[in-house]
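re: that chain from earlier
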Amino acid sequence: MTTFPTVPADLFRFTTAPNAELHTAVLHAFGEANERLEIALTFDDVHRELRRHHRPVSDEELTGALAGLRQWGLVDTVQRHATHHTTAADYERENLRHVLTRSGEAAVAATRHALKVMNSTGSLDTATLDAIADRLEELHTAETRTYAALMELEGHLDAFQTGVRLFHGELTRLHDQADRDTVAHLQTFVSDLDTRKHRIREALAKLSPDDLHERALKNAGVRDERQWRQERADRWRTLQAWFDGPRIDRLEEIARTAIVDLLRTLDRISEQRRKPTNTAADFRALAGWFARTSSDDEAHELFNAAFGLWPARHAHLQHADGELIPSAEPWHNTPAVPVSPQLRRTGRQEHIGATGKVRDVEQIRRARREQAQRERHELELAWQQLQTDGPIRISSLQQLDHDTFDRLLDLVGRALGAMPDSTGTRAASTSDGRVHIRLRNARGWAKITTQRGTLSGPDYVIEVQRR
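^ sequence. v structure.
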């Protein structure tokens, strides 16, 4: 059975006791001073910090606040024996120094973290997954940066878990306040999630946590080695639980379900905006009208008008060959008679006019064939312009027409979306497999000009071949 450590009873007493605002301000004043490496503060130093970040207070108010914080174990008072004072007031103001205890430091950190979580929004960040994969791959080869890379990995894992928790908690609010940006964010997250999680799993499989922690300890500089190893082992198990277990698959399922639900919500919102009213509002209005009727006859008339249940107007309709059906046959045993919708609206049968003329579509077919041939010719010309005799830099392609440039961007995008091989080269093909591109990174910057402007970007080395 798992046991959780208990929190000291007085750790957060300052937030609920009388004059909680001043207690909180004094604690944060100590926190601000600690960030500037000012650990011990005199009575006047605390006054100065409060004037800077909160508001001026009297000596009596500050004395009471410090006494309360000392009582709860958040602030301690120490003496400075190296100085001499002539009066008791000078002794109190200059000799006594106030410092945060370990509990006080924990209280300041906890309140700051709580405010940060309350003011932050959840997100599913693909950049964090990429950072986790990068650090894992670096740990496989790093020797001198093992400790730093391990700490960065744990930081990215914390950020990912925090974002997931906040996002999962905000799902209900997201359904009430659906927008296209949220849907686009979720679609971006799940688009390449399979590739990212397999990359992380492969990197995890190559690492041994015991060897990794042993390498990190060489330049860690920790005092309690046993506790440090236990903390690292717990964090590593959390990492494996996320990416070697079903958690990441469950997260993908939740994200995809949220996309569907949000799109349905957006459709309902759009439908309500297009219509001046909706079905629910119509029935509420109708219920109000029924409540105001004065008799059953008036209520029946309103019911017939609302739902169209007037007497039957199709009793005179007959089958095409009525002689086949005996006159004594019950109506529920006879074949159905088609009834025109116009009979309900107007009380009259619709009249079938003459058959319309068949349109000649030969000219349309000819135009479509010509357009298809023209597009095929333009495509072949574009592939001819992009085909290279060997590896070239993108910067060497100075002048391109816009359509050819568009196809080049599509090829480069496909290659950047592929995984690099051992040499760092990425390869991709068009959807029909006729054009193949190989791409690798190169230093420098490229500019390509078309009729519609100039695009700047990294100067990749590409090789385009037609099959």
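The mean pLDDT is 78.
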